[in-house]
Amino acid sequence: MIVEEGSVKVEIPDNITVTKKDEVFYNPKMETCRDISVAIIKAFLEIYNYKDFYIADALAGSGVRGLRYAKEIGGEVYLNDINPKAYERIIKNAELNNIKNIRVFNEDANVFLAKHYRFFHVVDIDPFGSPAPYIDMAIRALKTKNSLLCLTATDTAALCGRAKKACLRKYLAYPLSGRDCHEFALRILLGYTMRIATKYEIFLKPIFAHATDHYVRVYLKTDRGAKKADKTFEYLGYVKDINGFKMIKPYDKPEEGFSGPMYIGDLYDKDLVEKALDYCEGRAYKILSKIREECEINQIGCYDTHQLAKLLKTSAPPMEKIINLLKEKGYKVAIPHYNPKGIKTNAPLREVIEIILR
């Protein structure tokens, strides 16, 4: 059957199951993720004034992501998949859309990336599960200054604390469980990726991230030099959740009961978010609009109002009331894109507690 997404049409197998058993992998639920990716990558390339650029879609599946990049962003896009049937389908889907600015490969993703050492301006790793096995080669395939690494992780059981040993095995970190665990899933993935880059004397700066549906997605910009890479460790730390209040410890001072190491810096480049909003609509626009509000508040995690109300043995008041009262007091407030019951604010915790009690 043929499906339309963005500016392309792609032919996919009938009766897809969205599992590894599919002849060619295609996940319709990731359309919003791809919409956001197009907007972020387009905005990034525009900010750095790239006219000629190379993008890699290393785990291309049906090719929908890479083909959208080729048609909606431009440049030259390299699509790769180890599955011979996926390779053939990508070529057919490119012909279906009359897309010429691509090259298609049928290789193991790490082999493909290794053959393109320091070649790409953008590398996108969108696997079924964890991106961890591909991160090392993805970093090596990027140009070392002002290039973009995009990673998706669907193994949220590991990153969100339901499978702690899996998180330790894949990301060398202890996860944090809880209702706002998805932000800490982002931070664990970012921290792990940044640490991997330091051995190549590369500093990876997080510039955008979101936790949506069943996955988390991060974007990091490259910069080179040993001194810059050393700054990575200033942005790493450990977090402990004490009844909804987050305690932060620096990277060199882990203690029992703390989760991490993870990235504890800002998640967003405000200018990038603002520009990306011009290139998206629908659900993607709504998510980025919420993130634009989050950009104004430098808070790690959020206060879950229902969790706080439960601890205070009262019912949670309407979110609108909490937000309005905090704003009346002159504080900034935002509802995080990943938790409709949470608030990010520069108000002290006691102010939030007083409002809930009142």
SSE topology:
Elements: E1 2-5, E2 8-11, H1 31-47, E3 54-57, H2 64-72, E4 76-80, H3 84-96, E5 102-105, H4 109-114, E6 122-125, H5 132-141, E7 148-153, H6 156-159, H7 164-171, H8 181-198, E8 202-212, E9 215-224, H9 226-230, E10 236-242, E11 245-250, E12 259-263, H10 270-276, H11 282-294, E13 303-304, H12 305-311, H13 319-328, E14 333-334, E15 342-345, H14 349-357
Parallel strand pairs: 3-4, 3-6, 4-5, 6-7
Antiparallel strand pairs: 1-2, 7-9, 8-9, 10-11, 10-12, 13-15, 14-15
Helix pairs in contact: 1-10, 1-11
Q: What do you see in this structure?
A:
With 358 residues, the chain is an alpha/beta fold. The chain has two domains: 2-294, Vaccinia Virus protein VP39 (Rossmann fold, 3-Layer(aba) Sandwich); 303-357, N2,N2-dimethylguanosine tRNA methyltransferase, C-terminal domain (Phenylalanyl-tRNA Synthetase, Chain B, domain 1). Helices cover 38% and strands 22% of the residues. The protein has 14 helices and 15 strands. Strands 5-4-3-6-7-9-8 form a seven-stranded mixed sheet, sandwiched between helices. A three-stranded antiparallel sheet has the order 11-10-12. Helix 1 (31-47) packs across helix 10 (270-276) and helix 1 crosses helix 11 (282-294). The longest helix has 18 residues, at 181-198. It is globular.
